[in-house]
Amino acid sequence: MDSQFIALVATLVVSVHGCRKTELPPISHTMFPEGFIFGAATAAYQVEGGWNADGKGPNIWDNITHERPSFVANNNNGDVAADSYHRYKEDVQLLENIGFQMYRFSVSWARILPNGRINNVNKAGIDYYMNLIDELLAKGIQPMVTIYHWDLPQDLENIGGWTNPEIVTIFEDFADLVFRTYGDKVKWWITINEPYMVTKGYGADSFAPAAYLDLHGIVEYQVGRNLLLAHAKAYRLYQKKYSQQKGKLSMAFTGIFSIPKTDSQEDIAAAERTYQLTFGWFSHPVFVGDYPQEMKNRIEQLSRQEGRNTSRLPPFTQDEIDEIRGSADFYGLNHYSTVFVAEGTDQSSSDPKPSAMSDIGVTTSVDPRWPTGASVWLKVVPQGIRLNVKKICEEYCNPDIIITENGYDDDGSKFTDDPERIYYLETYYAELRQTIYTDGCNLKGHISWSLLDIFEWRDGYTKRFGLVHVDYNNSNRTRTMKKSAYWLKNYIEMHKIYYK
Ligand code: NOJ
């Protein structure tokens, strides 16, 4: 083997010179293990367009961008987006060209069920995803389907959206249809993308529907509760009705990943609390059972100080705890960046009314030396992803993990010239390999965000996450591979040659 030969030469060289003997890592450690999955992702509202094509109903993003255009930078909206509704074959061709083995995309709820409910199914919507799945499978690319990626049908928002407990069974019905229709072809499922971020659409103006703004501190926890119950219902339904399809299900979890600002006990505790009240809020009920104790204690205590008789965090019943516990076959992690946290809330931004964010009670900051993406929140901190994966192994008993999103955004000014994205991928991959080879974590795959330059929510088309450039000034939405896509193609290719 080459690696043994290199190691032998290195040993001889150091022994001749009498220097300290060092071991070179095996050459295979520059790569991921055999079977590791490389994928790319998008989400329906961010790429499809066709907002009212062929019977699709309106969703909360159609609604907010039409009713309140200034909600998004440059009054952008997803009416056409990258036009993947008409150009999905080009997308699949790009996936094949780069060498991806998996494509994570989401189904648009209102494209399949225009009113959100099961009594009105849109055949054209069903066909669209069937065609996309068939196109992927024909090229040997595994679909990973996200059932909900933030585009709630407007009719469901009109009855309270995720605040209304009825949503739990309405979502279960939708999931049932999707499993029944596509389940013989799809073996990887994400029920809900980033439930933590979904809560920020309520009680805050950050995402659609930007509703119940006065109820922050309360509404986020009601929404979070319904999201967890909806996820668990879908999971149990799959187990009961579709287990012969042998698919694997999870959520795509996220939160605020932080490092203590100093090594003081207070800051170390602040980082742990940040983890438990963001990532732990959703992953603890799924992997351990119930909310993290620290989250329950803290919100209970703050609620009492505010003069309330009950906690703002509504509890689960024992049956609900049992239904949610164990409702994932792997851990789907969306990770981009890392912050420092210090104990105590930043006074200058204090709002007298609590929120899920202020409940954490920390001040965040960044190291000015960290390189940054076009989004201010996206700092390049490769060691953070390793720490996050390691934390998952420790907290949740070493589950299988797939990075369901990870990537870098630029402002598009350099067209396809994106060395910063290559640097990001290269350094994050190096840390991910450490989680496998050094930390012993069961990391099974990495899904890049995003295949294309997409509609980046409130930032519209001003922030570009794509490995592939999309020309938004051209009605053909011309796609051009960036340098990072070529870099990644070579990197994936190297694995295929080595493991052949
Ligand atoms: C996570 C979300 O799932 C995705 O929709 C978004 O584009 C990326 N973060 C980047 O902000």
TrEMBL record:
Homodimer. It comes from Apolygus lucorum. Keywords: Glycoprotein, Glycosidase, Hydrolase, Signal. Belongs to the glycosyl hydrolase 1 family. One of its GO terms (biological process) is carbohydrate metabolic process. The keyword Signal applies. It comes from the Eukaryota. This is Myrosinase 1. Residues 1-18 form the signal peptide. Gene3D superfamilies: Glycosidases.
